[in-house]
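note to self: dont lose this again. the chain is below, predicted strucutre after it. 136 aa total, dont forget to put it in the shared folder this time
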Amino acid sequence: MSNAVVALGGFAFWTLILVLSIATFRAVSDLVLKRGIPINGFKPDGSDVPGFGQRLTRAHLNSLELLPVFAAVVLTASLAGQMALLEPTVMYILYARVAQSIVHLISTSAIAVLIRGIFFVVQVALLISYIWQIIM
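---
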């Protein structure tokens, strides 16, 4: 299996782990805190749950926002017969995504946001590089 397929599958799997974590956090939070929020009463931005819940929601949404772009780049490379362009570095997108999420879950301090930004730039720079190489 190619690195691009593994990285894309890993990215999707990580996104699913985050969404399942949100569901678990909300259920446990509601049970433990006895807030009695109806199942359809949670706000999609996570603003109605404590700090970690908000960070978890944002980490999931950050992953969800970039997943289709990553999938489109892998699909484009595949259709163009250019998968070899991705192979040497594509796993770094997955590593940077997981690292960005973990840092997001740990802290929102200025240094943590800077580190998260660096991991995000790595992902975007690689995707732009792939697109550029494929169309050239």
